[in-house]
């Protein structure tokens, strides 16, 4: 799972900034083109972009197939949105409008499998996007491999 997460590898290498792109228009061709430009990550923006759930799933798969980390910016801190992005195989999520520590706890619970959270398991897509052969491997490694970012720096006030 680690080798498949290019963003995590770049950040752990400590060799300077990681560069990425922001996809706001739907389309697998857009996703592949952006992923082929040498970026470490491409963020699929479902908050302000014109990207619905189906287009997000397609983009995440296309980006990951290029060896680039797909990130998803979800529209809100709603558990079902977080789970859909992670089930699609996103290497990380960006979540807007986290104002309190309770907001952050709600987010983490949505993103983590039990006993660390309340995310359910059922997606056949995630393991393959991380280069794993089984759902068991994915669940065991997911806790330490997912990235969660607050797109607004509200947590310093929590």
Q: What is the quaternary state of this protein?
A: single chain
Q: Choose one word for the global shape.
A: globular
Give the C-alpha Rg: 15 Å
How many β strands by DSSP? 5
Helix and strand sequence: HEHEHEHEHHHE
Q: Overall pLDDT, averaged?
A: 79
Give a quick summary of the entry:
With 158 residues, the protein is α/β, with parallel strands linked by helices. It has seven helices and five strands; from the N terminus they run αβαβαβαβαααβ.
3D architecture notes:
This protein is of the alpha/beta class. Helices cover 41% and strands 14% of the residues. It contains seven helices and five strands. The protein has helices spanning 6-13, 28-35, 53-65, 79-88, 101-111, 126-129, 135-145, and strands spanning 20-23, 41-45, 69-73, 92-95, 147-150. A five-stranded parallel sheet has the order 1-2-3-4-5. The chain is globular. Mean pLDDT is 79; it is low at 149-158.
Task: Describe the protein's topology.
Elements: H1 6-13, E1 20-23, H2 28-35, E2 41-45, H3 53-65, E3 69-73, H4 79-88, E4 92-95, H5 101-111, H6 126-129, H7 135-145, E5 147-150
List keywords for this structure.
158 residues; alpha/beta; five-stranded parallel sheet; 5 strands; 41% helix; disordered C terminus
């Amino acid at each position: 799972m680690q080798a498949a997460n290019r963003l995590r590898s770049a950040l752990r290498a400590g060799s300077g900034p990681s560069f990425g792109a922001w996809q706001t228009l739907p389309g697998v061709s857009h996703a592949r083109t952006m992923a082929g430009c040498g970026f470490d990550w491409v963020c699929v923006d479902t908050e302000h972009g014109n990207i619905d759930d189906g287009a997000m799933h397609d983009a995440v798969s296309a980006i990951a197939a290029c060896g680039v980390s797909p990130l998803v910016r979800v529209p809100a801190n709603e558990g079902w949105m977080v789970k859909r992005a992670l089930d699609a195989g996103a290497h990380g999520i960006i979540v807007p409008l986290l104002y309190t520590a309770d907001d952050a706890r709600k987010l983490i619970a949505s993103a983590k499998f039990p006993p660390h959270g309340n995310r359910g398991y059922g997606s056949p897509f995630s393991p393959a996007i991380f280069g794993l052969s089984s759902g068991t491997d994915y669940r065991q490694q997911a806790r330490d491999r997912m990235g969660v970012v607050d797109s607004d720096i509200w947590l310093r006030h929590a």
